[in-house]
Amino acid sequence: ITAFGAPVKRGRAGVSTQEMNDFAGTNFYNPNWGYQNGEVRNSRIANSHEPAVIFRHDWTPTERTRLTTAVSYQFGRDGATAIDWYDARDPRPDYYRKLPSYIENEQRDLVADLLSTDENARQIDWGYMFEVNRNSIATILNADGIEGNTVTGNRAQYVIEDRRFDTRRANANINLEHNLSDRLRVSGGLNYQYQKVRNFKVLDDLLGADFYLDIDKFAEFDFAGDNEFIQNDLDIPNKLIQEGETFGYDYATLTSKAGAWGQFEFTTNHFDFFASAQGAQTEFWREGNLRNGKFPDNSATVSEKASFFDYGVKGGATFKLDGRNYFILNASFQNQAPLPRNGFVSPRTRDQLVGDLQQEQITSVEGGYLLRAPYAKIRLVGYYTEFANQTTAQSFYLDNAVATEEGFEGGFVNYIMTGINTRHMGLELGAEVALGAAWRVRGAASLGEFIYTSRPNVSVYLDNLAEVLRQEKVYIKNFYVPNLPQTAGTISLSYNSPKFWFANLNVNYFDNIWIDFNPERRTNAAVSFVENPLFPSQVVEPGSELWQKILYQEKAPSAYTIDFFGGKSWKV
To answer: What are the helix (H) ranges across 162-315?
Structure first.
C-alpha cells in the first residue's frame, strides 16, 4: 500500500501585454496583486491537495510469468481564487480599455505617464474595492426565495471567489507478462477508470460587504426585468451568499473508461520487434446540481452519455548493428475520445453536448539512431505526427457578438471549434559524454515545425439563449501551434566529486515561440466590416497595415536561461 499527498498553495503570475511590461520596465510584471494595508496581496491563489492511495499486488506463479494488480483512488481539492464583480468598473489594472493604446483623447499621455511612474496604478487597488463595498447599501426583496423577506445591507460589488474543480478518480489495472521463450515475450492487461470532476464556485472573501447576490450579471444586461431568468439558482431566487458558500454554478463531469491491451516482443541477435494493440470504451456525461434560470429544464439534469470506442495499434523494430550502434523505426495510429471539457457547449449552465462530436485521430512515425558506448551516449530521432478532428470549447465575452442596425453589441458566448488538424514534425538530439570519472558534458536539441493543417469550423452560441449566432470558417491553416518553443536546446557541464559534492552549469535556449491568437480575428467578418455591419463592401484592404495587424500571427523573441546549482552530502 502506497499513499502520498502534497498540499500546495501559491500565488499565481498573470499574463499581460507587452505594453504593460514596458510601463513596468520588466517582463516579470504581474497584474494579479496589489497592496492591502501596506502588504502584498495576490488575488489569484492556487490551492490544491489531491492525495492518492495505491494498493498493488504482485504474483509470480512461475519463473516466466508475472501478474500485477493495482487499485488506486485519488481525491481532494483543486482550485484558484479570482476577483468577481457586479455593476462596477473592471478592477484589473491591465484591462485593455484602461490602457493608452485604447484611449484616443488628451488623457492618453497622462495615463501613460501614470502607469510608468506609479506602481500602484499597475496593480490591484484593494482599498478601492473595500471602499466601494462599504458604501454599497442595497435592499433585497424576497431574499433567499422567502416571500416578504427583506434584507438591507452592504451588497458586495467586488468579491474573491474560489473556482474549484475537485476530482475523484478510481483506477483498476491488471497486467500479465509471460516469457514464452528467451526471445519471445507477450504481455497484456485490463484497465478501468472512473472519474468525477465537480466544478463549482465558493465565496472566499466578501471584501468588507455583508452579502453577495447570486445572479447572472451577463443575463441581467439583456433581461433586467426577468427576475427568474437571471437567477443562478432558480430554487433559491435572490440568494444571499456568505463566505464559504457555493454559488454561480455547480455541476460535475463524469467519465467511465474500460479497456484492454496486448503486446508481443520478439528478440534476435540483430533485430528487436514489437507490436501492440489497445481498445477502450469511453463514456462521459454531465450531472447538474443547480437549476439555472436561463435553462430551468436542462441545467439540474443528467445529460445523455457521449460514447466512443477508442482503439490504437503500434509497432516498431530496432536493428542492432553491434553492441553499441542501434537504428530504430516505430509507427502508431490511434483514435481517442474528446475531453469532457470540450464535449459540452456550456457545462456551467446546461447539459448540451457539442454537435457531431468526433474522436481525435493521431498518426505518428519516428526513426533514428542510438549510440550506447561506455563513455558516450547519443540519441538522434526524427518524428512526424498528425492530429486530426480535434475539438475545443471556450466561453468568453465577445465585443462584437451580435450585429444590429446600430452596430455591434457585446455578449458572453460559447465558441466551439471543430475539425482542428495539426502537424508536428522535427528532429531531436540528445548526447552525454564522460570526460573522465567526475566530469560530464550533456546536450539536447529539438528542431520542430508545429502547424495547423486545416481550416476549422466554428459555431458561436449566445450563452444566455443557446442561440447559434453564426457558423463560419477560421482561416488558420499554416499558422503555428502557439505557446511552446519549436526550437530549443541545452548544454550542461557537471562535476561529481568522490567527496560527495556536485556542481552543474546549464545554458538553455528557446526560439520560434508563437503567440496564441484569437480565432475570431481569422474569419471573414474580421476583415469584411469596418464600422457598420450593414455595409459588407467596406472591407479591409488586403495587404495593408491594418490587414496584417488583424490577421498575422505574432512571434515572441528568442530567450535563454543560465542555471547553476550544486549540492553536498555527508555520511553519518
So the answer is: 217-222
- Cell numbers found for residue 36: 492591502
Quote the cell numbers at residue 111: 495615463
In 456-476, which positions are buried (b, 16+ CB within 10 angstroms) versus exposed (e)? bebbbbbbbebeebeebebbb
At residue 222, what is the residue type? D
Q: Where in 405-516 does DSSP place strands (E)?
A: 407-435, 439-452, 457-462, 467-473, 487-497, 501-511, 513-514
Which tens digits make up the pLDDT trace of 75-116? 999 999 999 999 999 999 999 999 999 998 889 999 999 999
For the chain, the farthest-separated pair of C-alpha atoms sits apart, in whole angstroms, at: 88
Q: What is the dihedral of CA 379, 382, 383, 384, to 10 degrees?
A: 180
CA dist 357 and 484 (Å) reads 27
Distance CA 36, CA 191 (A): 51
Give the count of alpha carbons within 13 A of 139, CB side only.
4
Exposure letters 315-339 (e unless 16+ CB within 10 A, then b)? ebbbebeeeeebebebebebbebbe
Q: Do residues 185 and 165 lie in contact, with contact meaning Cβ atoms separated by under 8 Å?
A: no
